[in-house]
Each structure stands twice: as C-alpha cells, then as structure tokens.
C-alpha cells in the first residue's frame, strides 16, 4: 500500500533555522547524512550496514577528506550548491571525469525520481542547474566529482521538498525492463565484497540495438543505490568507445562491487537516437533477509520506473 504523507510545516520551519529562504517547491531542508562514527574507526549507516572507514561507500558523507557539499540559496526552479575545500573556500577547479566536471545525481529516499544532471560552474565556485527535484519528498543529492590535484569523491546531502508525498514501494527484483520502447535485460548478479560482471543488453522491437551512441565516455553509465541508506556506487564500464574491442551494443558490461547484502536499485543511462534513456532494475545481492526483503515488494517494473513522469531526465 502506498503511504501518503505531508511535508511542509516542519520543513518550512527549518528554513528559518538554516537562515536560507527558498520558495515552496524548492529545497528547504539540507540535512546531515545519517551516518554515525564508531570508536573502532568504522561507521554504521542508517540502513544498518557496517563498513570500515576506508571502505565506506560514496555518498554517505556530506564532508570527506576536507571537502564539504554545501547547498546554497537559489531562485525558484533552480538548484545550487558549492564544494568547500580543505581551506574552507569554494573549489573552482575540477578535473573532467566521464566527460564532465560535475555529476549531480538525485533520488527520493524511496529510490524513485532518479535524475542525473550536469550543473554549470560559476566563477565563485557555485554550481547551478534547473532543479532536478521534481515534486515533494525527502531526496538525496549526490555530487560526484574530482577536484584538481585531489582524489575523486562522492558527497551526499538530504534535502526536502515540502508538499503531499505518495511513497512508492521498491519494485520487485527483475532481470528485464522496458523504457521508451527499448527492452533492457540484465545478466549477472552482484556479489557482496567482490567484483561482479553485470551485462545489460539493449533491444528494440525485438531486434538488438548495435549502434548505441557514446554517453559520458562509454556506451552506458550505471549508478547503483543501496536501499535504506542510499549508499552510492558509481559502477565502471568494461571498455570504452574506440578502444578497438568494445562494440556499440547490444551488450554493455560493467564491473561492480557492492559492499553488503541487501537490495539495490540500478539505473542504466544509455544514448540512442540522439536521446538518453534510463532503464531501472531492483537487484538483491547475497541472501535476502529472513521473510523476504520488504523493500522488494510490489509489482515488477513494466517500464523505466519513473520514465515519462516529471523529474526524470537528463541535462
């Protein structure tokens, strides 16, 4: 059953606390990620997964290695943030990774509403983009970047858009889904603690798609989010366009290492016909919890879960 909640008064009250004014429909509640420090040097996330500090997945921290993700005030219809560096000043120099200097990924806490966009950097170090937060809900925003002369990082922060929200159950695990007339089939399964090969096969009207177009330096771009704490995994493709061995479809293979058992949502971006499409899957790594994974209840996806609805797209 879907759960309808109301996000408004409490979130709006937090605006005054943070001293930043946003119009209704904008980000109103930057929150501290739900990750606790532990005396043994590890961390425990809100989802109950234990990991050592040196292997903590991306996106669970708002600050890491001296860098901090800081949302800033923005006009209606815009999302803005900056990355503050170890010296406390906004970072203004970034390396290009996957064809972009900044990847901003957002998803609601129920793993719906996924979007992957690319903001523009201002001279003052502020990144701005048309807001990818479509509709009410508690969202997680991930900044995936590589500061010049620094290590690649993924930082995450919770934000709230006020209003009436209908929470969506996580779709059941499936090995095939459809989006925009394409069928995408998944072969392989993630295995906790070790590298696994995941192959996504794209077809259309029953025919394999053999002319995929490069997108972000590859024939596909895969993001995985762990149910519960939304730990972020940026999975790497096996091969690149023009390397003499990687074909433009129908198969796109990724090497993935998930940190724990549990349910994950996979989001595959691929370009064909001049447009980017997103196929979504629920997968379970390792043994499902006793009694089944409650997050995997609900009907199997019959289309790219959020495709064609407001808030799902690419920039």
- What overall form do the CA principal axes indicate? globular
Beta-strand content: 35-45%
Task: Tell me the major beta sheet.
Answer: 9 strands, antiparallel
According to DSSP, the number of beta strands is 23
Helical residues, percent: under 10%
Radius of gyration: 19 Å
CATH topology of the largest domain: Immunoglobulin-like
- The CATH superfamily of the largest domain appears as Immunoglobulins
Number of folding domains?
A: 2
Tags for this model:
single chain, 315 residues, mainly beta, Immunoglobulin-like, 9-stranded antiparallel sheet, 5-stranded antiparallel sheet, 23 strands, globular, disordered N terminus, disordered C terminus
Task: Tell me what the structure shows.
The chain is mainly beta. The protein folds into two domains: 3-167, Immunoglobulin-like (Sandwich), CATH 2.60.40; 176-296, Immunoglobulin-like (Sandwich). It is built from one helix and 23 strands. Strands 15, 16, 17, 18, 19, 20, 21, 22 and 23 form a nine-stranded antiparallel beta sheet that branches.
Structural topology:
Blueprint: E1 3-7, H1 9-18, E2 35-37, E3 42-45, E4 50-52, E5 63-64, E6 67-72, E7 78-84, E8 102-108, E9 115-117, E10 120-121, E11 126-130, E12 137-145, E13 153-161, E14 163-167, E15 176-179, E16 182-187, E17 196-204, E18 207-208, E19 221-226, E20 232-237, E21 251-256, E22 262-272, E23 275-285
Antiparallel strand pairs: 1-14, 2-3, 3-4, 5-6, 6-7, 7-11, 8-9, 8-12, 10-11, 12-13, 15-16, 16-17, 17-18, 17-21, 19-20, 19-22, 20-21, 22-23
């Amino acid at each position: 059953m879907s759960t309808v909640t109301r996000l408004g008064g409490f979130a709006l009250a937090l605006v005054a606390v943070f001293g930043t004014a946003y119009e209704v429909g904008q980000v109103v509640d930057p929150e501290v990620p739900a990750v606790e420090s532990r005396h043994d040097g590890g961390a425990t996330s809100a989802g109950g997964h234990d990991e050592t500090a040196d292997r903590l997945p991306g996106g669970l921290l708002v600050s890491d290695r001296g860098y901090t993700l800081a949302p800033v005030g923005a006009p209606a219809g815009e999302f803005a943030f900056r990355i503050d560096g170890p010296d406390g000043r906004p970072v203004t120099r970034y390396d290009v990774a996957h064809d972009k200097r900044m990847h901003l990924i957002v998803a609601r806490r129920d793993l719906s509403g996924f979007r992957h966009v690319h903001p523009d950097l201002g001279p003052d170090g502020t990144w701005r983009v048309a807001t990818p937060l479509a509709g009410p809900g508690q969202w997680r925003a991930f900044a995936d970047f590589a500061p010049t002369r620094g290590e690649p990082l993924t930082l995450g922060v919770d934000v709230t858009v006020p209003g009436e929200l209908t929470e969506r159950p996580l779709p059941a695990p499936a090995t095939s889904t459809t989006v925009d007339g394409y069928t995408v089939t998944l072969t392989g399964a993630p295995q906790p603690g070790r590298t696994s090969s995941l192959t996504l096969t794209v077809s259309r009207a029953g025919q394999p798609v053999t002319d995929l177009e490069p997108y972000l330096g590859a024939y596909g771009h895969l993001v995985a989010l762990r149910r519960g704490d939304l730990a972020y995994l940026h999975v790497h493709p096996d091969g690149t366009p023009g390397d003499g061995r990687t074909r433009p479809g129908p198969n796109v293979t990724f090497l993935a290492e998930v940190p724990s058992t549990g349910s994950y949502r996979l989001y595959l971006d691929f370009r064909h016909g001049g447009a980017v499409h997103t196929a979504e899957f629920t997968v379970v790594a390792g043994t499902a919890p006793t009694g089944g994974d409650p997050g995997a209840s609900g009907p199997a996806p019959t289309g790219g879960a959020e495709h064609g609805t407001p808030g799902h797209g690419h920039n």
